[in-house]
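Quick one: structure for this chain?
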Amino acid sequence: MNSKNFTILLCSLVLGCACSNNAIVSSGTGNAGRTNTLKTSAFKQNNVVELLAFIDSYSNLTPEMQKKVFAETNQILAENKNNLLSRFKLATMLALPSSRLRDNAKAQNLLQDILQENTLNPSDFALISLLYEYTTDNAKQSQKSREEAKKLESAQQKHEALELKNKVLEQKLNELKNIEKTMNDRDSKSSN
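Got it. Here's what it folds into:
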């Protein structure tokens, strides 16, 4: 293929893509359809931006303010259970390490429900998936930590039991030594 044909093919491909993207964006009723599409796309991207800003600000709140924000978010969800951003926020409040209302199991369940709905745009899905993976890993690490603590406690109890047994045996050995000494002293007195 010569360079002239290649250039024409490349230009055709670029124009074809441009026309198809323009048709998708402007589908609907004139400019109003285009505006709605752009606003929807911007809103979806703002979920991630807004959620990240929320995480940053929530982490810096006092425990009393965290409780207040938690109650307000629950109130919004009581009024509209489909409010996706509020569901994100609630799950985040339950998952964050800096949250005074932390409940990893509830956060994990909420995040799993959101992910299973398959209604998320890619950026929301990526952020919620990351938060879900964090809560899952945190739950595994907590379980492992509890198991290690139980093993350590068991080993500590065994150690204490062995120390006690050692002290008892040492005391008996000292008693036997005292008896032997007493017998040796008596034998040496009787032979004199």
